[in-house]
Amino acid sequence: MRVGIIGAGFTGLTTALGLVKRGIEVVILEKEEGPGGLAIGFKDKQWEWALERHYHHIFTSDNAVKRLAVEAGAKYFFSRGKTSSLWNGKMVQLDSPTSLVRFGGLSFISRIKTGVGIAYLRYLADWRKLEGLTAETWLKNWDEEAYRVIWEPLLAGKFGERASEIGAAWFWARIKKRSPYLGYFEGGFEELARKVEKRAKARGAKFVYGAGVAGLKPEGGKWKVSMEGAGERTAKDFEFDKVLVTASSFLLAKLAPQLPRSYKEKLAALDGLGAVNLVLALKRSFFDDGTYWLNVNQKGFPFVAVVEQTNFVESGHYGGDRLIYVGNYLPANHKYFGYGWERLVSEFLPYLKKINGGFEKGWIRKGWVFKAPFAQPLVTTGYSAKVLPHETPLPGLYWASIQQVYPWDRGTNYAVEMGERVAELMLNGEEKDGGRK
């Protein structure tokens, strides 16, 4: 059997590794110049470690990606990353029961109710009890004051006008999996991806980079993949018995127009948001209090989070640069997708100064902007009925996307878990529950 995998993100990498270990011939096709998917890195000339284009970390409970790291020989560490919130023009730490009790933005009874609500969600095993409710409804019912002060601005900042549609099961997953200690890979997530790639290559996997897939066509019991920028390779190089697409529902529908109309309608119902991340290399730290992650709990800001990587990972790995992300989740047609990093800095500067009054353009040594047209599924109520199996209606064509990891949210760990499942499915032809336990 010869398998083609479209996409060298962690789902594609894990699937490839699972297949080649069982003697299957695998070719991975990737439009970028290296592996990693949404966790792909970049490296300035003075840095020792690569940095992800879009901020990444893992949780202590992310066992699948930790197992993969051990198998590939990648090293990781955990550290207590300080999380704060911007509330009423002030930064306040909000990442533990103690900091919640001290938070002056809520009445005492509301603080207690919020703590009890978080504990309830952490210990709730059956997420299906929440599936018929929106996050807004559940949070308001639990404590309206906390919803208004903490949760509503975050939901609105992340999901915009769709915030009221987000399901309570999505919120449960965010609380359930979060851990006070966060993990990172030595050398960055790209180092893990490269080590998995190396291990797969040692077993015979082939990687084709810098060539996007233009289309898929079933012909004579095979799948023919047409490529953009395939160079000297022949059509025979892109002929497979089975093909796995590790991309969004939108791209799957575009690549395989032969899919039944009813199935494509189901794909179209799976909405999502893109991401625009401004990355700045600064000459000094942006957060002097050691904050790693700042949630912007304040309406009117044009971004939802500021993340200082070098308050989590030693700046020495980045040539002494202090690195921050200014992050957003936005519809793919938002104007920021057309902005360069300097224009985004000009747009964001007044708001960054509201967080740190001394911040100015002179602090910036260099900047980048990275854009992903799809990075966050819009998980609405009753989402389990929308999740499609990995097998498509077309024999030999499989699909694996972060839109299928429900009730969990996007994350490298779930990409790895999904890759393990899909490898078994492609080998044994038996679809399982997709982890929705």
Number of domains: 3
Shape designation:
globular
Could you name the CATH topology of the largest domain?
A: FAD/NAD(P)-binding domain
- Strand percentage lies at 15-25%
Give the CA-CA distance, first to last residue: 32 Å
Mean pLDDT: 93
Approximately how much helix is present in the residues?
A: 25-40%
**Contiguous helical run count:** 12
Uncertain regions spanning at least 5 consecutive residues: 433-437
According to DSSP, the number of beta strands is 20
Biggest sheet details: 7 strands, mixed
Q: What is the assigned CATH homologous superfamily of the largest domain?
A: FAD/NAD(P)-binding domain
CATH domain class of the largest domain? Alpha Beta
Considering the chains and any ligands shown, give keywords for the structure:
seven-stranded mixed sheet; 20 strands; 3 domains; disordered C terminus; 12 helices; Polyamine Oxidase, Chain A, domain 2; globular; alpha/beta; FAD/NAD(P)-binding domain; five-stranded parallel sheet; 437 residues; 32% helix
